[in-house]
Amino acid sequence: MHHLNTSILKRITLVVTLAYMFFGSHALANTSKTNSPISNNTLMGLLKPYYPFYNKTLKCQSVVVDSSFYGVFSAHNNKAGHCVEIDRQVMVETNKGKRLYVLVTGDIKFGEHEQGLIDSNDALFYQGLAGMFVLKPNGNNWKIESASPIMSAGAQGMGLHDWKLMRLAPDAWGFINEDGYEYLGYVETSLVILTPNGQNIIKSSINNSNFSAYTDLCSDEVKRVCDDINAKLQRIDTSKVVDGFYPLSFMINGRKNNKTYKNANYTFYYKKGQGYQIPNNYPIGLEN
Between residues 159 and 38, which one has the greater pLDDT? Predict the structure, then answer.
């Protein structure tokens, strides 16, 4: 896994840009980092049971995750110590009262032991950390209603930042961001969607671009096999509800496997307990 170079990064459209382009600012629950009366320090105190360690050297609240969580087989079987921070907290009004949506992000900063930094080569094969919480009022305090404190998001040990909150159901919201990586010249990006599901959070991933111009498959002689395709989130279909959530409409343009797509429409439906599902014949993804 390698760092994305500048030319590739320019090709990756951030989800906030997509959201603003196709929805306008009303799609976001709040454009600021927070509209909550709770400070980040107070909120982190409430979340301390999920991130129980304080790294004195780095001065951060943290959690140590076994490498197997990320499906990583390191020669040294290192564990990943993530320093965590509040990326976003937004208060929304629901039919059941106020709810505080919180997104925590974490970069790998150290190894299993506080004093030992994880090997930089090993860190390349880890993902960053994301945690999502929904809190409800509990007297003068707050109580956690839904929580998934440790989810994978981001590449090369770095968590994703600047998550956006969007209304994805009549009475539920979800955090959205864009993830991406390069492997041997092949670039893939995807939208990561986190939605509450009872006491837990469901993570959905929707591939939204493939680009292979930096691989051996693509040259002046064989341009017909180059992949250069992207999907844009056109709208959230608020006219219908499937298993509690609105469908998502995407429009695809570009070329994949020698086939050209122009304004091709695909709809993603939510499946209860499983998140948004990939429709049949959806062309974007390494396996296609």
Answer: 159
Token pair of 24 as six digits = 């306008």
81 in Cβ contact with 61 (< 8 Å): no
- pLDDT by residue (tens digit) across 112-151? 655 555 554 556 667 899 999 999 999 888 999 999 999 9
Q: In whole angstroms, give the CA distance from residue 245 to residue 190.
A: 20
User: pTM of the full predicted structure?
Assistant: 0.83
Question: With b meaning 16 or more CB within 10 Å and e meaning fewer, what string describes 124-153?
Answer: ebbbbbbbbbbbeeeeeebebbbbbbbbbb
H/E element, 183:
strand 172-183
CA nearest to 93, candidates 184, 200, 171, 192:
171
Exposure string over 79-108, b if 16+ CB within 10 A, otherwise e: bbbbbbbbbbbbbbeeeeeebbbbbbbbbb
For the chain, the farthest-separated pair of C-alpha atoms sits apart, in whole angstroms, at 69
Count other Cβ atoms within 10 Å, centred on residue 3. Answer: 12
67 φ, ψ (degrees, to nearest 5):
-60, -25
243-271 pLDDT, tens digit each: 999 999 999 999 888 789 999 999 999 99
Tokens for 101, please give them: 């949506």
Rounded Cα gap, residues 89 and 187, in angstroms = 31
SS3 105: strand
Which amino acid type is present at position 109?
K
